[in-house]
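Chain X:
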Amino acid sequence: MYRPKSTVEQWRIFQAVVDCGGYAQAAEQLCKSQSSLNHAVAKLQQGLGVPLLEVRGRKAYLTPEGEVFLRRSRKLTQGIEELELLAGVLASGWEPILRVVVEASLPRQPLYQALADFSPRSRGCRIHLVEAQPSGCQAVVNKQAADLVFACRAFSGVTSLPLATTVYIPVCAPEHPLARFDEVTAHELDSELELILADGSEQEEGWERAEQRWIINHLHDTLSLLRRGVGFAWLPLEVVAPMIDSGLLQRLPMANQALRKRFTHLILPRPMPPGPAASLLLSLIRHHYGDHETTPIGENTASSNYREGTLPAP
């Protein structure tokens, strides 16, 4: 079994002697006797078998080996300080992990912006960001297996907050036969292949008259197939707009200007109010989604009350 030959306190004393320029100055700063500092550094060097300092007159100078150990020891003591600070943070109720689940078909730029703002204030809290299909989101909510869930629908019995409206448009590759039409009707879509972003575990929403459907589990796969001229799909305008602008995809000009809209709901699956880290992230999410259109969806799903209390204000 490995037994350390040094202590954290010895490394801190070694660093103080270097930073202060000598034992006497370090002793004054640390409120310790000079002899105790001499003893600590001597024992450290003896245990390592490497000279770290040499004294010339009243000043201590680093040896070449000491320069290497000084850099490494600073990382060590900084890590110890961070561990001790983290212990205090967790003792105060700050969550060590936040699990965030996002439905695959939803755009998430405001969420990314919120997470970017959360990162420097996270105080060691880790984020687990998971993409799921509608049935997966429902399972997570039922099991209370996440702190935050972004979904296209609200769920009964849990807190739900409408965040934004997402517009879905039909798109295909520029070389797809549908791209030749100046105006696309339901008749033209009758026999065309539609790519449905879903998991196939339930009756999936698609173009009502489409006879052929492929169920695709990931947005990346859907976009890759579309760019290769395979089928058409209804996808979020925010997601496909850059690809339309660059000519990689083409928006289908529907005869009746048909659009689909879905709401982004923020679901809090657990009955207890969120902790301090979740509350911070929640306020940042509400702030960034505030720049997006939010449409009322009725009292039942728009209600943001807990069984006891309300959602934290942004």
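Chain Y:
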Amino acid sequence: MKLCTLIKNTALLSALVTTSLQAASLQDTQFTFGGYIKLDAIASQYSDGSLPSGNIGRDFYIPGLTPVGGEDEGTAFDMHARQTRFNFSSDTALANGKSLKATIELDFMATPNGDERVSNSYSPRLRIATIAYDGWLFGQTWSTFQDVAVLPETLDFIGATDGTIFVRQAMIRYSKGGFSGALENPETTITPFGGGGRIVSDDNSIPDLVLRYTHKQNWGHISAATLIRQLAYDDGSSLDTTENAVALSISAKLNLGRDDVRMMYNTGSGMGRYLGINAANGAVLNASGELESIDSSGGFIAYRHLWNEQWRTTLSYSWFSADNETSLTGMGVTQSTRSARVNAIYSPSKELSFGVEYSHARRDLENESQGDMDRLQFSAKYAF
């Protein structure tokens, strides 16, 4: 009997000690949860055909997907809540006086699309998963080559997409003061000799290197970044080729009282998937089976005006251009894209907003074919 009592008391004491240790641990950690719920209603009109049902380009603007060469105009209406996202973060005070931060963020923009017949179900996807400690960051987040702070406020998922660096990927980054340096996950997109598709290659032997410096002042900030990368392709048979590439990105945000101007310019070789959501590939295969990098450039400028405490408007223009060697890529590749958009957003409170946005986009191919898109979008968003 005494043995049973001793065992019970020991178990109870162990449970109390464990609970106390967990409570002490939680006292050193702060947890936060946030995100938003967003509804989008999108009406699109295309001059040269239409995008098929389920194409991601109907849910948000992708420059390289504007239809070109169709015989008739096309229209489409879509409504979804796929941009809805949530994030979870922790901040732990460590015994050595430093802090350990972790973040996980998901949304529902994964492809392929869900079934719209009955349930409109969409799978969650990983956006961000990071560990930050003593100036170091490990995990997946926005590329160091992208200045997230200058992205314009748009109802579209990205907005000024043509000239925007837009990539999330795994990396190891170190930051101190205004300087950041990162080794990031490499991936090469390639145009086959003569055109006719895209090869996605994961044959790189070294990571992409990004160096960035940002100067902040009361008037805003200016930032410059360099991307140094290896483009690689190995078909497992006779082709095994690499090419080096370098690109530059300059961005700025200028505060004009309560208003602001945001801008970005990007240029260089082999940017590929980094610019305009892969409007052009990073390289092309020549007749000898060797990679040649593709030069490209693009940028945007956006102006945001606050009419009062509840109403605001953003006007933006964005462009992209590729310097294709048409004897290698063929004439059916994208030569340039551009888009302009204007919106009006009403916020009865800081958590809730309603908006309407009009955008016009154009895509030109090397064969001089072109296609236009006009889009009207309504959104309702609750941020928490």
